[in-house]
């Protein structure tokens, strides 16, 4: 299990947020309104989403607005997020960026002022009841994923191979038991290896033992899925579909092709 110090988590969050500000510097309004891989969300909406989460954590009430278009919303968390998006649709991109810079500065200062005991406090998060520091790890991952949404939409690559991506990879790896066991329905004794290429990549092998899909070292695998860090994480986040993942440069399936494809299909499980 990967562990990070409280300082690493907070510094990493600041790093990702600053990278988002760097990625959105000097945009015109047309760029701010460019669609992203999140259905229904523009570049500006991505930043509003992050603003809404952090304002909520500061204790600000959710805006009282009616959400009319709901076809892209898949769960109550999505509906909760959307009210912030709708409430700020009339704001310019530069106004959104300015508010994001302000709330990011406030939140980092607040987090740095918390004691170890305060970061130990267990409370709600998108992955269940966890200590506050773990929720902040999820915030790093979520922020980095949305940074990449913005960068992909704008054609401004960057923010790669740092702490944010490291956290996202660990979170994706954590889900592989569910992906292989429940999603791909691998049978007893079968195994799937994910060969992730890139500076932070490596081999992840999941085997079904006593009806539980769990990480198990081994030289062979029933199915092997080779893909780049970018494809692994964009598929994990549901930003690309199965066909796009299969067609992406660097993707290769060997061994039991049906099982490998089923595992790749099931990989879209963020958080």
Q: How big is the Rg?
A: 19 Å
Strand line-up across the major sheet: 5-4-3-6-7
Superfamily (CATH H level) name of the largest domain: dinb family like domain
CATH second-level architecture of the largest domain: Up-down Bundle
Amino-to-carboxy terminus distance: 17 Å
Whole-number count of domains: 2
Helix content: 40-55%
In DSSP terms (H or I, runs of 4 or more residues), the helix count works out at 12
> Which structural class do you get from the secondary structure elements?
alpha+beta
Mean pLDDT: 93
Subunit organisation of the chains: single chain
The geometry reads as globular
Low-confidence parts: none
> Which series of helices and strands comes N to C?
HHHHHHEEHHHEEEEHHEH
Number of strands: 7
Structure, explained:
The chain is an alpha+beta fold. The chain has two domains: 6-168, dinb family like domain (Four Helix Bundle (Hemerythrin (Met), subunit A)), CATH 1.20.120; 175-266, Nonspecific Lipid-transfer Protein, Chain A (2-Layer Sandwich), CATH 3.30.1050.10. The protein contains twelve helices and seven strands. It has helices at residues 6-23, 29-32, 43-57, 76-87, 93-112, 116-120, 132-154, 163-174, 176-183, 229-236, 242-247, 257-266, and strands at 122-123, 130-131, 191-197, 202-209, 212-215, 223-228, 252-255. Strands 5-4-3-6-7 form a five-stranded mixed sheet. Strand 3 and strand 4 form a beta hairpin. Helix 7 crosses helix 8 (163-174). The protein is globular. The two termini are 17 Å apart. The model has no long low-confidence stretch (mean pLDDT 93).
């Amino acid at each position: 299990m990967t562990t990070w110090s409280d300082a690493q988590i907070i510094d990493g969050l600041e790093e990702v947020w600053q990278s988002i500000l760097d990625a959105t510097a000097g945009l015109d309004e047309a760029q701010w309104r460019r669609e992203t891989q999140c259905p229904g969300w523009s570049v500006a909406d991505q930043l509003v989403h992050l603003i809404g989460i952090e304002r909520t954590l500061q204790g600000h009430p959710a805006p009282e607005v009616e959400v009319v278009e709901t076809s892209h919303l898949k769960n109550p968390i999505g509906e909760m997020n959307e009210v912030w998006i709708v409430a700020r649709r009339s704001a310019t991109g530069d106004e959104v960026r300015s508010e994001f810079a302000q709330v990011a500065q406030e939140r980092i200062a607040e987090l740095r002022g918390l004691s170890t005991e305060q970061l130990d406090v267990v409370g709600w998060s998108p992955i269940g009841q966890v200590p506050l520091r773990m929720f902040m790890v999820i915030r790093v991952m979520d922020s980095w994923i949305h940074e990449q949404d913005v960068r992909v939409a704008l054609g401004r690559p960057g923010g790669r191979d740092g702490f944010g991506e490291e956290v996202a990879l660990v979170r994706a790896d954590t889900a592989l038991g569910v992906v292989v066991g429940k999603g791909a329905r691998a049978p007893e004794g079968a195994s799937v290896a994910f060969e992730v290429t890139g500076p932070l990549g490596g081999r992840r092998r999941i085997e079904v033992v006593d009806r539980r899909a769990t990480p198990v070292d081994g030289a062979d695998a029933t199915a092997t899925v080779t893909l780049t860090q970018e494809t692994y994480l964009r598929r994990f986040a549901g930003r690309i579909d199965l066909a796009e993942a299969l067609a992406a440069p660097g993707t290769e399936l060997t061994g039991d092709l049906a099982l490998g494809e089923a595992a790749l299909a099931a990989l879209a499980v963020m958080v």
